[in-house]
Amino acid sequence: MNELTLVLPEALLAVTLLGLLVSEIGYHGERGRLNAGIALVGIAAAWVQLWILYSAGSAKGFGDTFYLDGPAFFFKNLFLMLGFYTVLISFTSREIPSSQRSEFYALIIGACLAMSVCASAGDMLVAFLALQAVHLCAFALAGFSRRSPLSVEASVKVLLPGALALMVLLIATAILFFQTQTLNLAELHTILAAKPLPKETSLTLFLLVLMGISFPILSFPMFHWGPDAIQGAPTPVSAFLSAGLRITGFALFLRWVFFLFAQPAAQAGQWTVAGEIDWTEILAVISGVTMLTGSFLALQQKNAKKLVAALIAAETGILLMGVLVLNRLGVGALLYSLFAQLFAILGIFFVLSRIWDLLGDDHMNRFSGLLWRCRMEILGLIFFLICLVGIPPSPGFVGKFALIGAAFHKGWPVLSGIAVISTFLSIIACFRLIYACVGDFGRTPESVMMQSDPFPEQSVFPRARSLTLAALMIPLILMGIFSDWLLRWATQSITLILW
Length: 499
Prior knowledge:
Layout: H1 3-6, H2 8-25, H3 35-55, E1 59-61, E2 66-68, H4 70-91, H5 101-120, H6 124-142, H7 149-180, H8 185-194, H9 199-217, H10 225-232, H11 235-261, E3 262-264, E4 271-273, H12 279-300, H13 304-319, H14 321-324, H15 328-359, H16 370-373, H17 375-389, H18 395-409, H19 413-438, H20 446-449, H21 461-481, H22 483-495
Antiparallel strand pairs: 1-2, 3-4
Helix pairs in contact: 2-3, 2-5, 3-4, 3-5, 4-5, 4-11, 4-15, 4-21, 4-22, 5-6, 5-11, 6-7, 6-11, 7-9, 7-10, 9-11, 10-11, 10-13, 11-13, 11-15, 12-13, 12-19, 13-15, 13-19, 15-17, 15-18, 15-21, 15-22, 17-18, 17-19, 17-21, 18-19
């Protein structure tokens, strides 16, 4: 396969960025603007091209620094869907002014482009530079509402911890280069399999990678930025950051773990720890602390966006179990859960965006009576929360059950018990948010009645909101129906990784 063909999805995203620039320059006050259409068409074209490339099989190019294998294809699908749905969510949100949407869409597509490169990076330096671009886009998006002190605070809380995480990853990259004289993952895998690093060096390297990657995936010890940044950012940005950064982190972490810290076992679909340290015990501690800390934080929150951010952190702890079990069932369950949680997170923040437009706030004390004011959105919020925390029979339950089961059978009963406790606490936190919306549905509070709908019923926005809500719910319903097929596809994706 031609090397340039491998990057056609990324090239189409770059062309879309150019189209947004031309659209903005050519706009002279016409009634309709083409920026949303250009962004959606460009992302859809990149998605179609990605499937065409997948049908041609796995490949790598540019000196083995760019991979198009099972994991890359899986994660690129998630990134393109994330960008597509974020554009849809922002289209009906007051928090993104129409005069600034071209810049907003450009940042979203630029971030998706950098995330796609992260998913295919076969070289540590390429991965670092792509992650740097993702971080810069995230910083600009978090502070998009420049007149809001909360948004400015959010951008700072993305910038500083993100810079620290990148510095830590750069140190890890330097250690690898000084020890092996290469940064290519395939070469690193061969060298480390033949001659493992010293115990102290290997331990330091794993801790640095784990600390650096804990920032985007929202895990201990660098998840403290999440609740405040996600609350302060515009709600469409909160959806994009909480889902996009997390998936990017897992895309990098999975590839690095299987290339640097693990090696295939004799049994197909199994891996063993490479080197002299058992890093799975370290990861198990991080997983358990993240689960419990996130669920307890969720119980204490009074702001809906902060509560959801804490729930996402708790779910990250459970997802980490899919890495430490080192078998394809655990990793497949992790990928499946990421897929389900993508739509659940986008759906939750889509409804919270609607609530923000109505109330100008996300404090749960003001949510009383919202079921009367926007019934379909609140019912959708309940459905998305159920999918996020994995209440049966939602698709989220399938992934969580597989993750906990895989960890239990691999010899982690205590960690599996912590996951069950964390899930129970997360469900309680979810019901706090649900009760805030529906507890007093029989009466209509003045705070809700006095708010006029920012989009009149005769406008296009109510219909667009309904279509967006349906477009977010239908994939989750289909995932519940075809969960076996999707779980097999996710499991197959990790077995197609290129060594």
